[in-house]
TrEMBL record, chain A:
It comes from the Bacteria. Keywords: 2Fe-2S, Iron, Iron-sulfur, Metal-binding, Oxidoreductase. This is (2Fe-2S)-binding protein. Gene3D superfamilies: 3.10.20.30, [2Fe-2S]-binding domain. The keyword ATP-binding does not apply. Pfam families: Fer2, Fer2_2. Residues 1-76 form the 2Fe-2S ferredoxin-type domain.
Automatic annotation (TrEMBL), chain B:
The keyword ATP-binding does not apply. Pfam families: Cytochrom_C. It is found in: Cell membrane. This is Cytochrome c. Keywords: Cell membrane, Heme, Iron, Membrane, Metal-binding, Repeat, Signal. Its main location: membrane. It comes from the Bacteria. InterPro entries: Cyt_c-like_dom, Cyt_c-like_dom_sf, Cytochrome_c-type_DH, Membr-bd_ADH_cyt_c. Residues 43-147, 189-298, 329-416 form the Cytochrome c domain.
Amino acid sequence: MLSLSVNGQSHSVDVPDDMPLLWVLRDVIGLTGTKFGCGIAQCGACTVHLDGQPVRSCVLPVGAIGNRAVTTIEAIGNTPSGQKIQQAWLDVDVVQCGYCQSGQIMSAAALLQRTPNPSDADIDAAMSGNICRCGTYVRIRAAIKQAATGKQEILQTLVSAPEGTAP
Amino acid sequence: MKRLLVIVIIVVLLGVGAYVYLNRADTSDGTAPALAGAPASAEVLARGEYLTKAADCTACHTVPGSHKPFAGGVAFKLPFGTIYSSNITADEANGIGSWSDDDFVRALRQGVRKDGQHLYPAFPYTSYTQLSRSDALAIKAYLFSLPKISQPNKTNDLSFPYNQRWAMGFWNAAFFKSERFQPDPAQSPQWNSGKYVAIALEHCGECHTPRNLGFGLEHGNALAGEELQGWRAYNITSDKVHGIGAWSDSDLISYLATGHADGRGTAAGPMAEAVENSLRFLNPSDTAALVTYLRSVPARAGKDPITIDAQAAPALASNNAAPGGDSVDTNHAGLKLFEGACASCHQWNGKGQQTPYASLLGTRGVNDVRGTNVTQILLHGSNLHAEGPSIFMPEFGDAYSNTEIAALANYVIAHFGNKQGTVTPDDVAARRKQF
């Protein structure tokens, strides 16, 4: 039995040490917000936080976690940077098909946490490992900047636009 | 005229005499020093299994993933053609089932097979000649206890004159000496056991000892490092800068038993196979003995010595998630590739993210300006199934061009080794052909 701290809750899981964390999260604990993409740490879809650091859960053996805290997309909105990122994501309407987006948000939230006002180069370095087949990269960059500065970077969507303004 | 004939006869006789003398076989049984993993009191099959693993027979005689243990067929691409390993199961038709004890012992210790033909020294009889008869026969007993597999041997694809087996007699005369392990009474029992493990069983020197022009081992330069099948087998002499002299005992033991030592490196390529198939099965006392022996190997710089910068400035100026400290004229293509494909596991500070096996700082690979093993690993990935979870890195050979692989290798060498890498797209193209 392993004891895991996920999103502030303690879970006892009966799994082999070498099972990747992603399997434990999705199939054992039932948190399916984190996605399986490539399985070889090349696409970023499975990104979660370990003590605030982004890690690829598809290649992280659960036995290597110890007592470090796991945070997933389900709870990232409870952190200040995660909250800002998620709001900007809605305002800019980043998401297209959405499959990669929980990973994108986890990487972006970690970036904002350590670099509150990231440059383009900072964003490249932090986000290059997260691949989006829909090509939402332009909106991802805008949303990260908007989350950092609070200033509107590109056209906002209807969802959160003030009432009465033209789309 | 008569005088000339006499001279010719004398020269021929001298030549034949030298050939016979240099090819003389040591027929003594030999005595092995005590091994913790194969005590004399143990049953012969248990000893045989341990010795078979310690001699790493499977690495060459089992095609990975074939589920046909010891049925042979592994290809060895050499500069002069391809050799295939043979079936050493007890199958009578294709394997060695009809071999007597003496046949087996002769093959192991003289490099001559049952039909009297010479074996090629890709089969390390040059090392196994040190084995005691009792150990050789324990290995035979173990092999004969396994299921017979009737897989025919593949024909070697060697060019002339290398396909002439009889010619190996001359190679043996020049480079091989049939002799049993001789314990050195001046050294500790542990050292003697370690030497036996290193030389007779694990045959470390077959990869790590430089070879001369005739492909013979340079015994005076033992374990100073060599390049084989496109991989660099590093200098493992006691040299503190270029060898393993600066490694702690626990570094060495950890590397041998698990394939990784923090801040030193992770086994990849053929060494990963050696750890996976052989070294990790050594009894801890035998591993410790091996370390004792390696520590005594005279320090040598070896060819193209590698000097490690374990505090590479660019990596130290980076944190786990963001780069720093790269020079202004940094190789941008390499950085971009690292950013997208590598950083999520290796991290910008080279400490390794999901597993310490992915750490790069302080390793010899990233400090080798020729990027030999880095290029290999980028092209072909890495697999290591040792204790604990399987460690693997995907291969990027099909994803990236030669130019990209070269840029990435040079970036890695600059960032984690603080050196100017010299990998060119042509080097990468050559590596692709080699494997």
